[in-house]
Amino acid sequence: MFENKEYIAFCPYVSRVNFEIEIFPKKHSPNFENTPVQSLSRLADLLNKSLNLLYKTLDNPAYNFFIHTAPMPTDKKKYPHYHWHIEIFPKTNTWAGIELGTGMEVLMVSPENAASHLRENI
């Protein structure tokens, strides 16, 4: 959907919820906590744009967002392959039989259509 010098925000092809947005740093980094302070304002800018898009497009939905970072390394195990990222899950559906029985959400909007609707409000 949009990007800046250091980050990119998009609707993932395999979304778990309608209008899911993910934000990734362009430069590989396993640990969020190692993000340089000067980079955080660019991340905040993309996070703010993403949340404002959801606000405009979905009429101020409730949402959760998660920062996924590599586990703390131990002497025996490190996680250099992991790429930290943020997931934003707007709450657009009520779980019923299929969702409750399987633990999977039925998506009513494809990620491509979600991205298109969100882009209309940029």
From TrEMBL:
InterPro entries in UniProt: ADP-glucose_phosphorylase, HIT-like_sf
Protein name: Galactose-1-phosphate uridyl transferase C-terminal domain-containing protein
